[in-house]
Amino acid sequence: MLGADILLHCLELHGVDTVFGLPGGVVIPLYDRLKEFPNIHHVLVRHEQGAAHAADGYARATGKVGVCFATSGPGATNLVTGIATANMDSIPMVCIMGQVVKELLGKDGFQEAHMTGICQPICKHTYAVTDAAQLPDIVAEAFYVASNGRPGPVVIDIPKDVFVQDVQVPYDTGTVRNRIEMKYKPCQVNKEQVMKVASYIKEAEKPMMVVGGGVNNRLENRDLLYSIAQKADMPVATTLMARGVFPDGNPYDIGMPGMHGTVEANYTVQHCDCLVAVGMRFDDRVTSNVSGFAPNAKRIIHVDIDAAEIGKTVKPTYPLVADSADFLDALAEVLQPCEHKAWMEEVQQSRYEVKSPAGSVLPPKETFGFIDKYVDENTIVVTDVGQHQMWAALFLNTKGPRQFITSGGLGTMGFGFPAAIGSQFGFPNRNVILITGDGSFQMNMQELAIMKQFKLPIKICLMNNGFLGMVHQWQKLFFNGNYSATILDSAPNWEKLADAYDIKYMRIDTLEQCDEKLAAALTSNEGWFIDFRIDAGADVYPMVPAGKTLDDILVGE
Amino acid sequence: MKHKVAVLVENNPGVLAKVANLFSRRGYNIDSLVVSDTEDKSISRMTIVVDGDEKTVEQVTKQLHKLVDVIKVNDLTHDDTVCRQLLLVRVAADRETRGEIIQLMDIFRARIIDIGRRSLIIEATGDESKIEAILKSLQPFGIQEIVKTGISAMVRSPKEK
Predict the structure, then answer these.
(1) How far apart are CA A388 and CA A470, in angstroms?
(2) Residue from B19, B66, B70 whose CB has the most chain A CBs within 10 Å, to mutate
(3) DSSP states of chain B as a string?
(4) Which residue of B has its CA nearest to A114?
(5) Is the pLDDT assigned to residue B161 strictly greater than 90?
(6) Measuring CA to CA, which residue among A360, A407, A298 is closest to residue A60?
(7) Which of A70, A113, A330, B109 is most buried, with most CB under 10 Å away?
(8) Cβ–Cβ of A120/B17 closer than 8 Å?
(9) Res B1 pLDDT > 90
(10) Domain limits, CATH 3.30.70.260, in chain B
(11) Interface residue B117 vs chain A (CB under 8 A)
(12) CA of A125, closest CA in chain B: separation in Å?
């Protein structure tokens, strides 16, 4: 059997149904065999970066391992941004890259790049295959490593001659080495430790919980967190990576903490006496100036599956290494009903609603309010990176885990559109709403071809303000309004662009138009390109300037 | 403070790069690094000396442990260990000074392994302080070249009581 067949059999065996990729010289033998595997649906991207982000989006939405293919050299280097993006947000992916024939390795062969070397610092693990007989074991291990412990992307580098190597090896007997299995095996949650945490919550006067991407990745029971909050009578903040895991519109929901977090979430962090952090890593965008973070918290409990996260930034008084979802299950079981009435009142008092500037024609907050009407139980919201991302996080209320998809750690502009494509392939029948900006969208808009080809019903909401908004905002606030290189002159004619790909287009200039026109697009079974001419002067507030503590929150200019 | 960390790794191509990469990526300083294979040829052992406080070294060991190729990480700093490093030093020596140098090296149980017309090569093993002392004693004669390995360390066997 050819190496290419072994690889594809192995992928099939691991339940891979969708692969995003683009062929090139050394992977032709792999693509040559694809037609024999009808269960594997290959989606041809127009740029490999799109393949990596689409596989990532697929993984984020479904919870399965995302898979992408690329050829050696430039094909593989084009995946790099996508791999780093997945790595920072702990997303399970297996990236299969072609490599020049073994004979040419290290000799600067045509389209050779040392991909295992390039990828090593930005992924969970790399495998360099030298013999087709290794493939069953390596693929089995790659999937295991990618999805167990703290998830992450894994790279498999395969020389061209391995694809055409004819070996007799049973493809279905791939095994994970015992040592590797033990290394990433989920550790049992220690009941006694969880009881301790429960007692800390009960004893505390001002407890709170902050949940992060770990919870978003693993949570299945979407009512669990609310029942914990209710029983514990404590507020719950959700970081950018966990938007949607906690229901909105109740006294326990305080939204997102951090640089662009809500006033109430930041107030709660700064005034709590007991902070339970679950599946989050105290990113600097959450803590701001870490020396002034949660100054009144006598107890900080940090629950994370990655022992290296504990104490990396914030030293907890009580560390607990565990899978976040397992921990929450255990906590829900042992938690005694608590009462923190005065504290809950104090938290309600701290609530502050940011106002849009007067005279605004299409203010972001109200615009997102209209979009939010169409975010139902199953809607998946995918964002790009920038101001629109923060507005989406602040003003959209997604309704469950893995339904708010965004590049958090790396902050990759251009992530959103391909990730939305990946999400839509994961859930063909769900409404996928992409929130993007005119800067971000132009970074990967070549993938409109996929939307056309598969008639994907993605709703592209372009927050169009004519500049690189987030940088523009910083320039306004901290660089004396020197708008160096942030004005996006010569934007394409968006209507013609959408039309070029047979995608329906509408332009929204006012809130009245949101009211009149949005329903037709956002409830449609077809893809739409919605061009929101958002107010150019609108900035993201609240904001904690870099280097300041969460107490120094600004709510407007 | 200097910490000695022993790391057992799979003897794969690229594993040294992975470990070295981790140190550079996270901004940890390696004082010295020794790699060799072990009684099991599929496993290599690295002895890494890191300069940093307890917090840094805790992060180093945790991050090292996350690497798939890493089998085991031990901080030996607070263990009872024997540590050795190898020193080769070329020192200026003529007829007048040669005798004195040889006498001095006898005290340190260092060996002369090569004699030239105007210089000697001396080989010595020992822990860091001994190597320091040897170099200090040779300073007045004129040190021309120094080669040192990093530190290798092994935990002492338990003693019967």
Answers:
(1) 9
(2) B66
(3) -EEEEEEEEE--TTHHHHHHHHHHHHTPEEEEEEEEE-SSTTEEEEEEEEE--HHHHHHHHHHHHHSTTEEEEEE-TTS-EEEEEEEEEEEE--HHHHHHHHHHHHHHT-EEEEE-SSEEEEEEEE-HHHHHHHHHHHGGG-EEEEEE---EEEEPPPPP-
(4) B14
(5) no
(6) A407
(7) A70
(8) yes
(9) no
(10) 2-75
(11) no
(12) 7
Domains of chain A, with CATH numbers?
3-184 (3.40.50.970), 191-349 (3.40.50.1220), 364-533 (3.40.50.970)
Residue A65, amino acid: V
Q: A275: helix, coil or strand? A: strand
The pLDDT value recorded for residue B160 is 75
Place of tokens 């502009």: A413
Q: Are A115 and A157 in contact (CB under 8 A)?
A: yes
Tokens of A355: 């106002």
Nearest to B17 among A117, A145, A307 (CB): A117
Q: Please name the fold of domain B2-75.
A: Alpha-Beta Plaits (3.30.70)
3-state secondary structure of A64: coil
Q: How far is A184 from chain B (nearest CA, A)?
A: 9
Q: What is the dihedral of CA A83, A84, A90, A96, to 10 degrees?
A: 20
pTM flag (> 0.90): yes
Residue listed under structure tokens 């975010």: A375
Greatest extent of chain A over all pairs of C-alpha atoms, in Å: 73
Contacts of A183 in chain B (CB under 8 A): 68
Pairing verdict, β B143-148 and B81-92: antiparallel
Residue ranges of chain B that CATH labels 3.30.70.1150: 81-155
Distances (CA, A) of A15 to A8, A210, A329, A430: 11, 34, 27, 21
- Give the Cα separation of A254 and A264 in Å (integer): 6
- The CATH number of B81-155 is 3.30.70.1150
* Mean pLDDT, residues A26-54: 98
Residue A91, token pair as written in the block: 């997303």
Alpha carbon distance B89, B141 (integer Å): 12
Which tokens sit at B152?
A: 């290798």
Distance CA A352, CA A290 (A): 23
Secondary element (H or E) of residue A325? helix A324-334
By the 8 A CB rule, do A431 and A371 touch? no
Read off the pLDDT band of B7 (50, 70, 90).
very high
Instruction: Express each pLDDT in A214-239 by its tens digit.
Output: 999 999 988 999 999 999 999 999 99
Q: Look-up: residue for tokens 């005119």?
A: A438
Nearest residue on chain B to A177, judged by CA atoms?
A: B68
Coil, strand, or helix at residue A322? coil
